[in-house]
Task: inverse folding
């Protein structure tokens, strides 16, 4: 699959108005006859739990209903994804609330099955599961992958040793974004343990907000380096590869994995300027670039 894609994915900015998100979740839950929602997590989206229903509040770059159509289309392909709980969304002040059936967790994730699912996704054409109004991005244009701009902005917040390690990583993977002649496939864009849960029948892949067109390694690379800084087991990645099958480019796997960790570090450094909790996490991540090792990273 080749061709041009939009610069922005379905969601690429966090919800800044926590009170507005809470208000919309309350309004939506009341209209849908759900219990009072409680906040589960706040990141790009604010995710609330209301009984057996998950209410997601976010700022989509597209039709709010398109996320429901996408989930239905992906399920038709045989992929295990969250099931919409309501056919409509609630919109207010630029925020959109949608309802999803809560996934009952059942044991450990079968990463080989996740690999099989990714192979199915990568074999699809963009026109097959992606509805009108749901953007499919060029991930190279995501703001957190603009390394030169971010390093220029954050230079004074990064110690010399860590900065040197970051620049060595960029030099090592120079040309990572040259995809001329590379077959691009439809990618989930953010496959990692936080976005996969063990459902009763199969692992469920969550959060399709970063769907993009990219080389297939884009979807497998995060797990290739997950055990290095985030914890977990390298065997998870091995199982993912087994399920996926087929040949993968080792150079792109390494580049995408390393640079994803670099992007995650830089975003933590930026967030740490205004949030002491994120500043603490940024220091944990900078230790890796300075020393080649350090404490385990968290999503805090």
Result:
């Amino acid at each position: 699959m080749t061709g041009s894609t939009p610069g922005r994915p379905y969601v690429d900015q966090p919800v800044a108005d926590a009170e507005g998100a809470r208000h919309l979740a309350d309004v939506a839950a009341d209209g849908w006859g759900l219990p009072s929602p409680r906040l589960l997590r706040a990141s790009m989206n604010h995710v609330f739990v209301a009984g057996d229903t998950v209410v997601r509040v976010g700022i989509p770059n597209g039709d709010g209903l398109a996320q429901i159509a996408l989930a239905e289309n992906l399920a038709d392909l045989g992929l295990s994804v969250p099931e919409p709980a309501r056919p409509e969304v609630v919109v207010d002040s630029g925020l959109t609330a949608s309802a999803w059936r809560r996934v009952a967790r059942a044991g450990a994730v079968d990463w080989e099955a996740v690999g099989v699912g990714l192979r199915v996704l990568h074999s699809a054409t963009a026109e097959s599961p992606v509805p009108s109004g749901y953007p499919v991005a060029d991930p190279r244009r995501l703001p957190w992958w603009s390394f030169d701009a971010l390093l220029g902005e954050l230079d004074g917040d990064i110690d010399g040793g860590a900065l040197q390690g970051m620049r060595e990583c960029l030099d090592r993977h120079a040309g990572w974004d040259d995809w001329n002649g590379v077959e691009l496939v439809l990618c989930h864009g953010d496959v990692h343990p936080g976005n996969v849960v063990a459902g009763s029948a199969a692992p469920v892949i969550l959060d399709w907000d970063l769907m993009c067109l990219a080389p297939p390694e884009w979807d497998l690379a995060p797990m290739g380096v997950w055990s290095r800084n985030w914890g977990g087991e390298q065997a998870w990645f091995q199982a993912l590869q087994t399920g996926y099958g087929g040949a993968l480019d080792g150079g792109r796997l390494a580049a995408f994995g390393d640079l994803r960790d670099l992007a995650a570090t830089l975003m933590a450094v930026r967030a740490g300027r205004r949030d002491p909790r994120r500043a603490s996490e940024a220091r944990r991540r900078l230790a890796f670039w300075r020393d080649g090792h350090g404490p385990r990273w968290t999503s805090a």
